[in-house]
Request: fold
Amino acid sequence: MTMFGEVFEQYNWEEVTQAIYSKTADDVQHALHARKRTTEDFMALISPAAAPFLEKMAQLSQQITRKRFGKTVQLYAPLYLSNECQNICTYCGFSLDNKLKRRTLSPIEIMQEAMYLKQQGFDHVLLVTGEANKTVGVDYLRDAIRLLRPHFANISIEVQPLEQDEYELLIAEGLYAVLVYQETYRNATYKEYHPKGKKSNFGYRLATPDRLGVAGIHKIGLGVLIGLEDWRTDNFFTALHLHYLERQYWQTKYSISFPRLRPAEGLIEPNSVITDRELVQLICAWRIFDEELELSVSTRESALFRNNIIKMGATTISAGSRTNPGGYVVEPESLEQFSIDDNRSVAEIKMMIEQCGYTPVWKDWDRFAVQNMAHAV
Reply:
């Protein structure tokens, strides 16, 4: 079976970067009017040449989103289970070399956190841990999913990459989706950001979505950490990865997230800065490129940015997030993985969505989408 690594090896980072920055206004016009868009079209839409077309891109992105998803926004909450981690990552508060109090939630504590989220209205929960296989390995994750499955419609995870058979085990327990970010597709500098731990293995991480696809996961979430390397080039490689996955594992759903480097303990400064305007361009480019894709914007972004981006392509947002284990009720003051920007309560986020003329969706996405599509056109 062809793996993405074989596709990836056919491309050169520097050549791709040059191609992106060489795109012209004519290339952008072609991408905007194409009936079926290619990765070359995506390259044009994220290029500097597309900047003057942002208003047109935003209008088209809004039209496509409303056609496919209606005027709905799906809500989810992260549930941090552990900050134990055996990796050294230069951008993460949980990095092994950071001297912080480590905490892994017990089954009772997991349920305390979960019941708080349930009371807030959430039916989609994202379980997050550091990458510490012995402490929070597949057995711990299986037990957590067993605890939570009766209470939530969708359970997703963002944890260390696992083997195919381990994903199959968790899927059988009720796992719905896995988020696995490559962080950066620039192999030449990847090790600089991940000097120690299993995460330093670029190829193993790159092959994780393939293992997920073979295991039969319902949804795969992709993305890069914006700020490590050139955001345009990294997102082109993400699009290339998605393009491959959608053809190889066509029954699986996909989502893209846009995490920007945020302040955290021991954090490096961004190598590549993206402005709010450029992030809007990127999100609109993704929507125009792939109409079926779920686009997620977390509380890393400001309230003002999130208020506006749901009108231009984002379909999924987190609310009331805490990025530390026990952060909701068990131990609110423990060290965060990164600081959030949008600190509004769940009720305030819900009100904002409704004031924008959209419907907040807690579960049964398709049912709400169908109801709202008639009002979207």
The chain has a mean pLDDT of 91. Strands lie at 72-82, 124-129, 154-158, 177-179, 219-222, 253-257, 294-297, 316-318, 359-361. Residues 231-248 form the longest helix (18 residues).
